[in-house]
Amino acid sequence: MKEAVPKKFNIFEVEDKWQKKWEEMDVYRFDWKDKKRPTFSIDTPPPYPSGEFHMGLVLNWTYFDIVARYKRMRGYNVYFPQGWDCHGLPTEVEVEKLHGTKKTDLPPDEFRRLCEKLVGKNIGAMKKAITSLGCSIDWTTEYKTMDPDYWRRTQLSFVLLHKKGFIYRGTHPVNWCPRCETAIADAEVEYETRTAQLHYIKFKLEDDGFLTIATTRPELIPACVTVAVNPHDERFKQYNGKKTHVPTTSRTVEVITDDLVDPEFGTGVVMICTYGDKADVKSVAKHKLPVITCIDEKGRMTQNAGKYAGMTTEEAKKAMIEDLKKEGLLGKIEPINQEVSVCWRCHTPIEILEKEQWFMKTRVLGSQVEKNALETIWYPDYMKYRLVDWAKSLEWDWVISRQRVFATPIPIWYCKKCNEIVLAEPDWVPIDPRMENPRIDKCPNCGSKEFKPERDVLDTWFDSSITCAVHAGWPDRENWKRLFPADVHPSGVDIIRTWAYYLMVRHLALFNEKPYKSCLINGMVLGTDGRSMHKSFGNYVASKEVFSKYGADATRQWVASGGATGSDIPFRWPDVEYGWRFLIKLWNAACFVSNQLKDFSVNEKVKYVLQPLDKWILSKAEKLTKKVTDALETCQFNIATEEIRNFTWHVFCDCYIEAVKDKLYKPGFYGEEKRKAVQYALYSVLYRILQLLAPITPHVTEEMYQIMYVQEKGFKSVHLSPWPTLNEKRIDEEAEKHGDLIMTVITEVRREKAEKRMPLNKQIRKLTIYAGEKGIAERIMEAKEDISGTCKVAEIEVIPGEGDGREVASYKVRFLAEY
Ligand SMILES: [Zn+2]
Ligand SMILES: [Zn+2]
Question: CA 816 to CA 819: how far, in whole Å?
Answer without folding.
Answer: 10
